[in-house]
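Structure ticket #2291
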Amino acid sequence: MEKTLDMSAGFNQFESGHEMGRHAIARGHKRPGFPGAMRDRQTTGPERFEGFSSAVSEAARRSSP
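Resolution: structure written out below.
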């Protein structure tokens, strides 16, 4: 009988959002919109939105004189 591997994988919602923001900026978007769940819902949306916002803010600070 073949054994199956039972495991779960997770990821960091903030980092996922941050990566989405960095990707949008790298693709040349100057004012990217957040492609995710609404922030006021009890989901992973708020953490992902915070990561996205962080990446966009970092890019804005780097491009400011």
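Closing remark: The mean pLDDT is 82.
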